[in-house]
Amino acid sequence: MNRQTPETDGKIVRRKLSDQVLERLHEMIRSGELRPGDYMPSERALMDRFGVGRPAVREALQSLHNSGLITINHGERSKVNQIDANTVLHQSDELARLWLNTAPATLDHLKHARQMFEIGMVRNAAHAAGPDDIAELRDMITRQRAELGNPEQFIAADMAFHRKLASLSANPIITSVSNAMLGWIFEYHSSLLHRRDAEEVTLAEHAQILDYVERGDADAAADEMRRHLERSRQSFEQP
To answer: What CATH number belongs to 89-237?
Structure first.
């Protein structure tokens, strides 16, 4: 039996020049040599610095643009983007949609994760919400009611209500995760929210959740959110 060793089976793989340029550009951003808002060096400057041709530089810059690290505007210098939780999660949107469409069980996992997330989120809201927050949330419910029969705007108002609750955490990661999960779920199921009876029930449940949040009753708010999301989950499962 032949025994394989790094010396006998290892292969030297020649890396693309553009991959090596991309690695160097990543390091320039990580080290702080290039900061958010900075203009990228010109293509000519990068060619001279790394000793490569224009195609390798352009391919590396396009990879940075595709990943959201820089913005390329034709006729202008590329600029380094500010990276935050929203930027990171936005990069996964297309993969998430593909995953949801090709792996049905993933949707159940997502809905379960959302339920656990939002129950914790509304508990925090019951402790953190001030009078201005309550007034804004009530105004959101009023605006949502004004969109009865207008599915696209009704769903947008629905998402805004839940996003506001998430924002009360004052934690940008929680807010961004909420945005991502809501976007994936509501886009996938938007046609199921077109029924007038489901919209009326949603409004009533939002109002009840907000009443408990205003009272500072975290347990009741969490229980009502659980019922709200469970009812929504059952609606989603209807043929």
So the answer is: 1.20.120.530
In this predicted model, what pLDDT tens digit does every residue of 80-109 receive, in sequence order? Answer: 988 777 777 666 766 777 776 776 677 778
Q: Which two tokens stand for residue 213?
A: 């949040």
181-216 pLDDT tens trace = 887 777 665 554 445 568 888 999 999 999 999 999
Phi/psi for 202 (5° steps) reads -60, -45
| Backbone dihedral angles phi then psi of residue 3, each to the nearest 5 degrees | -100, 125
Q: Are 131 and 141 in contact (CB under 8 A)?
A: no
Q: What angle do CA 51, 80, 24 make, to 5 degrees?
A: 30
Fold of 7-83: Arc Repressor Mutant, subunit A (1.10.10)
Strands 70-71 and 79-80: antiparallel
Q: Are 94 and 170 in contact (CB under 8 A)?
A: no
Measured in whole angstroms, the distance separating CA 71 from the mean position of its chain's CA atoms is 19
Residue showing tokens 């790394």: 50
pTM comes to 0.66
Distances (CA, A) of 219 to 113, 122, 132: 19, 9, 22
Burial class, 233, CB count within 10 angstroms (exposed 0-12 / middle 13-18 / buried 19+): middle
